Amino acid sequence: MIEFEGVGHSYDERTVLDGVDLRLSEQRVAFVGANGSGKSTLARMINGLVRPSRGRVLVDGLDVAREGRAVRRRVGFVFTHPDSQIVMPTAGEDVAFSLRKQGLSKAERQQRAVEMLARHGLEGYAEHPAHQLSGGQKQLLALCSMLVLEPDVLVCDEPTTLLDLRNKRHFGEVLAGLEQQVVLVTHDLDLLDGFDRVIVLDQGRVVADDVPDRAVGFYRELIG
Ligand SMILES: Nc1ncnc2c1ncn2[C@@H]1O[C@H](COP(=O)(O)OP(=O)(O)OP(=O)(O)O)[C@@H](O)[C@H]1O
Ligand SMILES: [Mg+2]
Description:
- Belongs to the ABC transporter superfamily.
- It holds the Pfam family ABC_tran.
- This is Biotin transport system ATP-binding protein.
- It comes from Saccharopolyspora dendranthemae.
- One of its GO terms (molecular function) is ATP binding.
- By secondary structure, the protein is of the alpha/beta class.
- It has one domain (2-87, 146-223): 3-Layer(aba) Sandwich (Rossmann fold).
- Helices cover 33% and strands 27% of the residues.
- The protein is built from seven helices and ten strands.
- The protein has helices spanning 39-45, 68-74, 91-98, 106-119, 135-147, 165-177, 212-223; strands spanning 2-11, 14-24, 28-33, 54-59, 62-63, 75-78, 153-157, 181-185, 197-202, 205-210.
- The chain has a six-stranded mixed β-sheet with strand order 6-7-8-3-9-10, with helices on both faces. Strands 2-1-4-5 form a four-stranded antiparallel β-sheet, with helices on one face.
- Strand 4 and strand 5 (62-63) form a beta hairpin.
- Helix 3 (91-98) packs parallel to helix 5 (135-147).
- The radius of gyration is 18 Å and the shape is globular.
- Bound molecules: adenosine-5'-triphosphate (ATP) and magnesium ion.
- Residues 39-40, 157 line the site of magnesium ion.
């Protein structure tokens, strides 16, 4: 359960989120809205990357501002720009690095990493320099490095911007098949099929909160 209680945010003087009250208990929740409407700011609050200026955010009852470490163990975050998430020289090492605290042997970590990569479109890439992957491959790698940790909640901020049609479809299938809660921010409205709830943000406020069809209809009218 993710709760936003009276959440607002300002960068310097400018208010970019205001009066956000949400209880997200559904398995698949998405946020859509125009550029600059506050989606990334809101998503980043779920694991404490941004601290709300007003109100509070809770994950399973834990206040993100106070118990950030415990929250980050539960919440995985996949960023728009995968470069910010890739920390090791090769793709395999990057996924294995995620597992460093799990008490597995090096060989087990490597094997899990290779399996994970193969499952998500990167078969044979374990030894490949991570920074020499294509943009879309980096997005898949970032997903692998996060999923291998089996977080309770996966927050994805525009995770498919660089993916080709096949990998985008694959990404959608991965999201659909996950047991954990998924919070997706996207401009790609095709990804919303099968979501339980879609929330439309406009100028930092929730302006629609509905099943995908109706929320997307509202968003299309809003954009005009
Ligand atoms: N670190 C920052 N410092 C100052 N202003 C910021 C910062 N990050 C975002 N903003 C501003 O906050 C507002 C909301 O930004 P945010 O990134 O949350 O929007 P978004 O809905 O994710 O947009 P997009 O669809 O373009 O990704 C924008 O006006 C943006 O310029
Ligand atoms: Mg954004």
